[in-house]
């Protein structure tokens, strides 16, 4: 059973959240594997998994929010873009179509039904990236008095009538509201879910590319054989692309803090 304790605006990493993210990535991978054989029974769970990613983003980012919006945006770009750009470029190469340069910067904003299928999971990264511009609003709505969450949800739902994709903000607000509780679950904190959580972003964006190439070259047998390859590729992308981008993101944060401390030290006393 999960245990929760009230812990608003904490910066502590929650291992169970990482494990949950890994299992959600596994659901999406399973859907893309099964759909190649004509099955679609994982379609709804896969949709819910993507919604879960948005909610977890709201949860995690609210817990680490410190109000430095410019630094936050720079860190998120460095965190998300390298893996995204690599998988998108490989997707265009596999599809054999000229790349849309603006898509490397999450424009146009795709949906789950976007065509051509360069790398279907990238649509959710378009939503994720643009949602970061609204993070101060999500934090405001999700923290403090519950009435702020109600106002945020109603305003976001109403905005969806003007632009439908704004409704995805509902899930980020939900995650921001839930961030006041610390989630614990023993199974999600165990070794396998933790490993999946560690590589979940890279696995999420790269697995379809492995499946597509295996299917094209070897058909059904190739697809079946490619499942362990997908996990290996996910780990390699995490190790050599995502992990350095995380370090760079943290370096930017450290430099920003050092610059701010130096500026305060040099400021004249009041």
Helix and strand layout, with pairings?
Layout: E1 3-6, H1 15-34, H2 43-63, H3 69-95, H4 122-131, H5 135-142, H6 146-159, H7 169-178, E2 181-184, H8 191-266
Antiparallel strand pairs: 1-2
Helix pairs in contact: 1-2, 1-8, 2-7, 3-8, 5-6, 5-7, 6-7
How would you describe the overall organization of this protein?
The protein is an all-alpha fold. It has one domain (3-68, 134-263). Helices cover 69% and strands 3% of the residues. The protein contains eight helices and two strands; from the N terminus they run βαααααααβα. The chain has helices spanning 15-34, 43-63, 69-95, 122-131, 135-142, 146-159, 169-178, 191-266; strands at residues 3-6, 181-184. A two-stranded antiparallel sheet has the order 1-2. Helix 1 (15-34) runs antiparallel to helix 2, helix 2 crosses helix 7 (169-178) and helix 3 (69-95) crosses helix 8 (191-266). It is globular and about 70 Å long.
